[in-house]
Amino acid sequence: MTKSSKPMPLMLCINALLLGVLVFLELADGQGTVQHADAAPPRGIPNAAEQRQRIADRLDTLSSTIESMQKTLKSGNTKINITNMSDLESRTASNAERDIADTTARITLNTVRAQLELYRMRNGTYPSTLAALYDEEHPEHDGISYLRSKPVPPPGYEFMYDATAGAFSEAGHPRW
User: Fold this and answer.
1) Which helix (H) or strand (E) holds 91?
2) Averaged over 3-15, what is the pLDDT?
3) What's the Cα-to-Cα distance from 120 to each of 106, 117, 175, rounded to whole Å?
4) What's the CA gap between 164 and 61, in Å, rounded?
5) pLDDT per position as a tens digit, 67-95
6) How far is CA 89 from CA 31, 63, 94, 145, in A?
7) Higher confidence at residue 73 or residue 31?
8) Cα–Cα distance between 151 and 137 in angstroms, integer?
């Protein structure tokens, strides 16, 4: 034997030992990796009949609950108790005020934009200021009153006019 062949029996022993450990683990486990690879996946829904029965029971319960609610409503024996009326009134009022302000701002924006476009079509360019649309004394006024008066934004809003683009918008809502 040469010096280079001495490690060979040692490597063979180590390989044999490792192979023995793998075989032992495979046999001791009972569910070896080979068995897992060959196992077929489960088919269908486990306990499908039980699940269907639970769903049917829930639907029956819901149906009976809805029927009893319908009977109560039809009989007229329903009582409604509102406990936070003052909160509801204040929220409703503030929502209504905000909706009115939003609507007013949008209507004003759309009206002024339409009149700006009409002015541009008649004169070939947008006015340098909005005053040309309503102020007869303004030098750009062309004899037509496009607006009755200066557009006034609702409280909490601020209108902006860009003469170069003819853009009339609200500061907080530039996309309006």
Assistant:
1) helix 85-123
2) 76
3) 21, 5, 21
4) 68
5) 988 888 888 877 777 777 777 676 676 77
6) 69, 36, 9, 42
7) 73
8) 17
